Each structure stands twice: as structure tokens, then as C-alpha cells.
Amino acid sequence: MGSGRVKEEDTVSESTYETDETESEAKEEEEEEERKTKKKESLKWLEELPDVPMGKLPPHLEFQRTRVECRADAPIHTDTLQYSGAYASSGYDNSLRLDNFCDNFRVEVIRLTEEDMEFDMIGIDPAFANAFRRILISELPTMAIEKVLIANNTSVVQDEVLSHRLGLIPIKVDPRLFEFADNNTPNEKNTIVFKLHVSCEKDKPRTAVKSNDLKWLPHGSEFHLGSEDLKSGSSSKPRTYTSFACSQDKLPEFSNNPISTMENIIISKLGPGQEIELEAHAVKGLGKTHAKWSPVATAWYRMLPEVVLLQEVEDEDAEELKNKCPVNVFDIEDLGNGRKRATVAQPRACTLCRECIRGGQEWEDRVSLRRVKDHFIFTIESTGALPPEKLFTEAVKILEDKCERVIAELS
Ligand code: SF4
Fold first, then answer.
1. How many CB atoms lie within 10 A of CB 182?
2. Is the model's pTM score more than 0.70?
3. Residues with CB under 6 A from ligand 1
4. What would the pLDDT profile of 296-313 be if each residue is shown by its tens digit?
């Protein structure tokens, strides 16, 4: 009996607990709902924000966002990337948007020759400009001399120094026509062979050995691989250091366009009785492996300079300002009656030496030196393998490939 009563009491208390639990759960749910409604109301202002961009930044913030200001002691506002909400309180959307980029991005070619080009890249982040610079220097393939077989060298230049000098001679050939060399025997698709055989006769003046003396061997190496083939008296053609299936000058891409090196580069000097005889084998490679494969002598950029006169600079001060600048950024305008005024004639030439703002606070108050953060003056100097404009388009393709690889990895 006793145990039955206890059981009954237990049943009663369990149902009481269940009712309490249900009530508290309902209360919690209610509270949660209330919290959610309050939160929604508190964020209503966000939903009501008009579409971005909502407006322009005040001039001083726009100036900080788009310009680096170069003061006499140090530059300020140098950061180029601010987080998307940096100007949210001013109603300006600072986030990166593809449509904005497409609208603003421009490339303007300023100078183009066979060897170099200067162009403006506008509306781009420094990270991209730097990516192009790095790709140009180290990721565009070229052909360069990698192996030197020296038969005779009695010049004063040691074999290893001679080989190093040969490696750095630019080869005028489109690297896209060749494959990267693997461990197999060099063939006509991955190797270019040059021969150098120069001597200085006795009783003759010293002779300069130049890159023009490197003669292209379209049929491959002429040096025999070993003496066995010759000793055995085999009637078959002795093996050489390359195995070309056909002569390179029979290939359509080279038949009218013989391969050569950059001219007039001095390799060595020979005294009377001295001689150099060697073969140089060029293969395809990348600048990140060795600088000899870099297709550019230089690839560099600078931000567009902006020089602004904050006050009128007249008469002797104008003369003084003009004379301060070593690259003639300023000019003098004749106002008549013997009056003169300084003007900014060539802001692009400014090297940011800051000479014009030295000499006291008064000069800092007169001249403002700035750099435009998203405008880059890019210069490419080719070594001769490919014209500079081709180098840039190849660099764009490589960056595109890299982006595609990242997208493929992420998706
Ligand atoms: S910073 Fe130097 S180069 Fe530029 S305007 Fe001034 S003086 Fe000329």
C-alpha cells in the first residue's frame, strides 16, 4: 500500500512538472519572439538605407581616399585599401564592385617603341599593378643559354665566368614556339644551339668577342657525344649532344626568320694567339629560376604625380620655385608690366624629390605634392625576345590563368 501511494504521488508531481515545463517553454518562446521583433525593429534603418552609392564623400575625405599627400617630412594617407564600411557613416559605399571596376579601368599607351613602352593603368589597385610587375619579371618564359660545351678557351676569362656571361645574352626568338626542356635528349622543339669559334692571330691586335659571333646551328650540336662511335668505325652518323629530327631552319616559323642574339654585347677579349671554341645550348625557362630567363630589363611603375599651387607664386618667388625643381616641373608665365607667375607645366615629370617644399613652412603652404592612388605609370623595357606590348598581353593571360585556377579550387 505504502509503495502504491508513493507511486501515485510521483505520478501527480510528474504531471505538475510537465505543465510547468510547457508553460516555461511557451514563455521562453514568447520572449524569444519579442527579442527578434525588437532586433528587427532596431535594424529597420538598415533596410531603409537607399541603394549605394548614396552620395559623395566630403572633399577632405575624398582627398584622403584618392590621394597620397607628400609632406616635407613624410607622406600621409598612404593606405590604398580601406574596408568596405570605412565611410558608411558618410553614406558612401567603399566596397569593391566589378561593375565599378569595369567602368573606371583604362589603359592608355603613352610611348611605344620596339624595346620599351610606357602606359597608364587607371582605376586599378596597387596589388594588381604589382602582380603584373612580378609576372613580367619572373613568370614569362624566354630562351636563354643554359649549357655551354667548351672545346677550347685560352682567353683570360675563366670557363665559368664565360658561361655566365653567355647565359645573360638575350636571344631574339619567340619563346612560345618552344617547349620546356625535360630530361630527354634535347631536340629541335626545346633547344637552340649556337656555336662560337673565334681566335686572335699572332701579331694581330686584341680582338673583342661579341654576341654577334654566336652562330645559330639549326641542325643541332656538332660536337660528338663520345669517341666510341668514331672508334667502332660505325657507318651510321655519330651521335651528338642533341638529336634533332629536322633542321630548325626548315620549320615554317624560322625559315624566313633566323634565330639570333642581341648584338654588340662584348663577351670577352682575345689577345694574340688566344682562342675560344664552344657550343652554347639555349632552353626555355622562367625568370623565377634564374634572372637570365627574365624577358624584361625592367618592369616598374609609379603613381601619377599631382603638383598643385595652393597660392599664387609671383615675381622673384616664381623664379626661385622654377629654379628649385631639378626636372622643370614649373614654368614662368609672363603677366605683363614686368610681372611673372609660376605655373605647373609638367607635373608628370615630378620625381618627388621635395626640393620645392623645402626652405620653410611658407613653401609647404604654397605647393602641394600628391600622388593619385589608383593611377599607375607603368614602364616595360624588353630584353628583345618579345616586343613590350606582347609581354604585357602575355602577363594578362598568366594572371587570368591564375584567377581561373583559384576559382576552380574554390568551387
Ligand atoms: S618634388 Fe621635386 S621634382 Fe617634384 S615638383 Fe618638387 S622639386 Fe620638382
1. 9
2. yes
3. 307, 324-325, 327, 329, 350-356, 369
4. 999 999 999 999 999 999
